[in-house]
Amino acid sequence: MDQFLTTLVAILNSAISPQTAALAIAAIGLNIHFGYTGLLNFGQAGFMLIGAYAFAISIIGGLPIILAFLIALVAAVLFALILGIPTLKLRGDYLAIVTLSAAEIVRMVGRSSLLTNITGGSNGITGNEYRGPFTDLSFFGDGRIDFGPWNYDATGSNGWWFIATAWFVVALLCLFVWAIMRSPWGRVLRGIREDEDAVRALGKNVYSYKMQALILGGVIGAIAGVVYILPASLQADSMGRSMTYFIFTALLLGGAATVFGPVLGAIVFFALRLLVQGLAGQFVPGTIMNGQQTEQFAWIVIGITLMLVVIFRPQGILGNKKELSFDVK
Amino acid sequence: MSSDVPTTTSTITAAGAAAKASVAGVPHEPGVAKPDAILTVDHVTRRFGGMTAVDVQHLEVQRGIITALIGPNGAGKTTFFNLITGFDKPSSAPKLIGGPKAGEAAKSSFNGNEVGNIGATKVAKQGMVRTFQLTKALSKLTVLENMRLGAKDQPGENLFVAMVKPLWAKREAEITLKAEDLLARFKLLEKKDDMAGSLSGGQKKLLEMARALMSDPVMIMLDEPMAGVNPALTQSLLGHIQALRDDGMTVLFVEHDMHMVRHISDWVVVMAEGRVVAEGPAGTVMDDPAVIDAYLGAHHNTDLGDDSLLTDEVAEELAAEVTAEETAEGKA
Q: Is A11 an 8 Å CB contact of chain B?
């Protein structure tokens, strides 16, 4: 029973952790790409990494935090333009290939030993080097705050200040997505997802709309990158292909083309992983599966879950069956 | 726009008579000049590898009338449609380096503006709106959303305006009103909240046409509007197309149904092997021996599938014809 309680507490902690919020934000961005516009972006982690590097390096360079944040956004805009200009006129599959490889390029350049004094190479940048200005903004004071089952520092890394700002950003972005997707602009995007040529025949500039969507989702990805590294450290390999895959899993689990789907998906994603890991650790004897193996087992279950979701509930938890964002048949 | 649909398609309205009269004096030859051309196309060719799919040297489309584009399968009708609506680029398009000689490059002007190389979006913005042979209903949008998407001048289609609803809500209400009006005309109003993907094939055709009308086009291009539409719907569709002409719109359509072509077109352009081979009013063109041989076949005047038209008289006539043919064959 004790062990079950430990698992439950771990799940509750992960449910509100800034890392979960970061995954939710990245999934909100990907939702604009994939859920609403039908752009197959397999490099959302690349956008996160771009944002994270731009933010951290700017702060270390001595810029104020607001400016550093803006630079992160501008960097994502430029990255989206570089990816979009050559590929958005082509069929969707090409964007998938280009984004996948571009994200890998960003990661490889980031961890390259040639840039060690800027990016920290494969060791990355420790949080203490860029976290200071953000912690200084806190008005939560010192000490610890208890709130229900959660007990954290008010301001320290992984404390309430980080949690509150991260989820505030999630709420803001949900509101933003809701506002633009009910608008005629969102309608054009959904039209493009269904059939570009039909929308083109109605006199809409499809290329421009796809570019806007790519930039917007990418910028949100960069915000996710900043939120992701603030309480932790910046390490290129933590935002690689597997991160893109987690984001896709969260999005499809929660429901693509819905406002809250990505958020719910991100929470369920981590909760499910911890639940499987906890249960396996408790009920499977150590001789069959040791601690490290339960973690790997949890990832396997996540992978199977993604397959089952796509096959049996392609609209995700919150999605509308009638408005599937992709055709499974 | 009037909401009443003519019950019989052969009724000739005043506007219809005027449309026919406007091209009455035009000689019946391919590429002939029209008194008031809305669309002029020059030197448009399209090659796929070694095959020339379209090679139209000159074609004019008269304003305010219904022009039918007919021809056998593979004649290049749809390719020609794609070329003039900007969905495809002519092989003879002017190029920066090389390309065709000046005066031989593809050129098309619509309503006084050059529309040769500006792309589909801008062509549509000029007021030339098309539909597709294979319908492109946006399946996972509702019927009403499909309609709204067709509207012009919605400020909310700009990302920055979109965030503030009051800036676009008024226009949206106007658009919705117009969409519902059009849907009522096309008998789709009760389906407005259904996903477009759940409509039948014929209803999708209607929706696509209604959606194209949302932007108040100057000229509407219909690619096989009757394919897959049931006979009852065909009647009302014919009425709709005539009503468009009567409202002052120019209609160009591709169709294989010769009855439809005969009933509603004011002018017929015949294509074969990529070229315009004949032009003229329906009656004249369909009596052209070249057109009959290339495309129509000897029995094109009789609808062999429609039993209601097959009166005793017609049946006897056909029987007599068959006997005559058999006798002729027997003699030969």
A: no
Q: What is the ipTM of this complex?
A: 0.85
Q: Which amino acid is at B273?
A: E
Please state, in angstroms and rounded to a whole number, the distance separating the CA atoms of residues A244 and A41: 9
* Domain-wise residue ranges, chain B: 8-136+217-303, 138-198
pLDDT digits (tens, 9 = 90+) for A168-214: 999 999 999 999 999 999 999 999 999 999 999 999 999 999 999 99
CA dihedral B216, B218, B223, B225 (to 10 degrees): 50
Q: How far apart are CA B305 and CA A296, in angstroms?
A: 67
> Model pTM?
0.87
Please report, for chain A, the start and end positions of each structural domain, with discontinuous segments joined by +.
20-239
Report the length, in residues, of chain B.
332
Distance CA A239, CA A49 (A): 6
In chain B, which residues touch A (CB < 8 A)? 85, 87, 120-122, 124-125, 129-132, 136-141, 145, 148-150, 152, 154, 156-159, 161-163, 165, 168, 172, 195, 198, 208, 211-212, 214-215
User: What confidence category does residue B1 fall into, taking pLDDT thresholds of 50, 70 and 90?
Assistant: very low
- CA B202-B203-B207 angle, 5° bins: 120
Which chain B residues are closer than 8 Å to A202 by Cβ?
A: 124, 129, 149-150, 211-212, 214-215
The closest alpha carbon to A277, from A1, A2, A10, belongs to A10
Per the prediction, chain A carries an average pLDDT of 90
A176 and chain B in contact, CB less than 8 A: yes
* A142 contact B CB<8A: no
Q: What is the topology classification, in CATH, of domain B8-136+217-303?
A: Rossmann fold (3.40.50)
Quote the tokens at residue B233: 């719907």
CA distance A26 to B27: 66
Rounded to an integer, what distance in angstroms lies between the CA atom of residue A189 and that of residue A201?
14
Q: Is A139 helix (H, G, I), strand (E, B) or coil?
A: coil
